[in-house]
Amino acid sequence: MYSFYGSYELKNDSLITTFSVFPKEYEITFEVFLSSFTSGNNYCKCANLFRFTNGTDDIKAYGDRLLAAWFFNSGNLTYDSSINGITYRVESGPFSLGWKKFNISQLLFHGAYISTIQINGVTISSVTNNDAREFYNVKLYFSDRYYLTQPGHARSLLVTKGCSETNMYCKPQLNVAYTGIINGDFLNIRFDTNYSNAEESAVNITWEYILPPFLKLESVYTSVDAVKISTNKYK
Question: Which of 147, 143, 154, 105 is nearest to 126 (CA)?
Fold first, then answer.
C-alpha cells in the first residue's frame, strides 16, 4: 500500500500519503527517533507523532482518529484508534528518548479482528475489534495539524494489507497471462504477471508447471528478481 525507507523530519501538518481504501486487515511498521519531549501548549500538553484519519476534524467523528499517537513531556504515550464504534484509548510509558520501532496491526485470527500496537517488540495493547470495517480516503500525517509536532524524525515506513495465516487468497490480486507459440520444433511459452493495482505490492510469488515427457527444456529466461528452482517433476 505504501513504503518509504528513507528518513524524514517530523513536521506539523505533513501529509505523507492518502489511501483510497484502508482495509480491515493491515500491518504498519516504522521507526521514529524521539529527540526530545515537549510540554505542549494550551490546547494539549502533548505533541503529535502521527495520525491516520478520514475526517476533517480532531475528534468529532468516528475515523477522525483512525490511528493516532501523542507523547507528553513525561515520556508517556497516548494512543487512540477507531475500534468498536468508539475512539479507544491506550496510555503507556514513560518512554526514553532515542529510536523506537512501532508495529501496528489489525488481523483476523480465529474469526476475530485483533487490533495490536507494539513498541520495540513489547505489546502495548491488543484488543478485539467487533466493528472492523474499511475506511475510505484515509490520510496519513507525520504529524497532524491540530497539535504541536513531536520533535524527531522517522524512517522505514511500511503500510501493507494484512494477510492472516488462514487467508489463502489474500490480496493483492495479480493479472496473469501466458502464451504458447510453436516455431518449427520449438515451443516458446511466455508467462507474465502484473499488478491489478499499482499501489499494492506482492512478494514471494510461486508458480509451478509440468512439462510432458516428450518435451525437452532447452532454456529458461527470468526477470532479475526471480529465483528458479527445479525438481524432478516441476520446473
Answer: 105
19 near 1, Cβ under 8 Å? yes
* Residue 198 to residue 52: CA distance in whole angstroms: 21
Q: Tell me, what's the pLDDT at 23? A: 96
Closest C-alpha among 43, 31, 26 to residue 81:
26
103 is written with which cell numbers? 508495529
> Rounded to whole angstroms, how far apart are CA atoms 85 and 91?
19
C-alpha separations of 169 from 134, 135, 165, 172, 192 in Å = 18, 21, 10, 9, 19
139 near 54, Cβ under 8 Å? Answer: yes
Question: Which residues in the chain show pLDDT less than 50?
Answer: 233-235
Please write the tens of the pLDDT for every residue from 122-173. 999 999 999 999 999 999 999 999 999 999 999 999 999 987 555 555 656 6
How far apart, in whole angstroms, are the C-alpha atoms of residue 43 and residue 45?
Answer: 7
69 touches 149 (CB < 8 A): no
At 112, list the grid cell: 476475530
d(CA 72, CA 79): 12
d(CA 112, CA 182): 51
Is the CB of residue 143 less than 8 Å from the CB of residue 65? no
Say what the pTM is: 0.73
